Amino acid sequence: MNEKGPVSANSEIILNIKSQMQQMNPAQTRIARYILENPDRVEGLSIGNFAKESKVSEATISRFVKFLGCANYREFQAEMVKSNILNHERIRGYAGVDNMNDVYQISQKIFDTNIQCLVDTLSILDCKAIEKIADLIVKSRQLWIFAQGRSVVTAGSLKHRLHRLGISCTIYSDSHEQAMAASLMKKGDVVMGISTYGKSRTVLKNLRIASSRHATVIGVSGYRGTPLEEICDIMLVSSSNEETSFGFEPSCATVAQMVMLDCVYILITNSMKEEASECFRLTCEAIESERE
């Protein structure tokens, strides 16, 4: 199973906080939200004032910074200073968009949020995981994907690309279909679970069944430390700006996950070489015949 541990403070700390939010308790979540909403202010606060403003105890602050991988509060502040220098214009999700009336202003906010999410995802991208996933799919020549809700959109993007390469890919969004597919899996099979928050009950339940049948389980999510990560052999994690978007459910995590899976697709294409070229030729001809 995928090894899980504290995120290193050597990584950009704002991204660390965002990727860990789904596993935080209520007090930690209050601290995290305060940091995300007031990054410049936090770096200058004493631990006592920070505790007072985020409405938690100093001991809770100390535990929080260690949870992030910092040795102490002083190291946390140093990381915040570096983060603020590097990310002075960080985009904070869709927060505030409900107070905007100008179409261009709204559009700019949405574009900027998605661009920021892609940049952040690249900075935490696990290239070794992408390489392993591509290799597994090439060897298996087929992939099962369990997804629900908008994660089906992400799954559909990968399915379309794999079909262009002659690789079988089946998406299961129905709970009964997922259960049946998982129960018939065997060693050598590869199944991918896509869940933005890593908590989709149906997907998790059926991935556990697939794992018990010795299938290789891949996870795609927008957060670290989720129940999904505990099940999976390999994880791909994107950045996400949803924790500061207050119910708008922005597209950024979906877009970032589609781009990560595009990286997998290109590695598969490169490894197949001449075979991929022939598949592209045949499928392009087939699609062209459907156009007027």
From TrEMBL:
One GO BP: carbohydrate derivative metabolic process
Ranges of residues in domain HTH rpiR-type: 11-87
Alphabetized InterPro entries for the sequence: Homeodomain-like_sf (IPR009057), HTH_RpiR (IPR000281), RpiR-like (IPR047640), RpiR-like_SIS (IPR035472), SIS_dom (IPR001347), SIS_dom_sf (IPR046348), WH-like_DNA-bd_sf (IPR036388)
Keyword entries, A-Z: DNA-binding, Transcription, Transcription regulation
Cited CDD domains: SIS_RpiR
UniProt-listed Pfam families: HTH_6, SIS
Domain SIS: 133-274
Domain of life per record: Bacteria
GO MF: carbohydrate derivative binding; DNA binding; DNA-binding transcription factor activity
Listed name of the protein: MurR/RpiR family transcriptional regulator
Organism (species): Blautia obeum
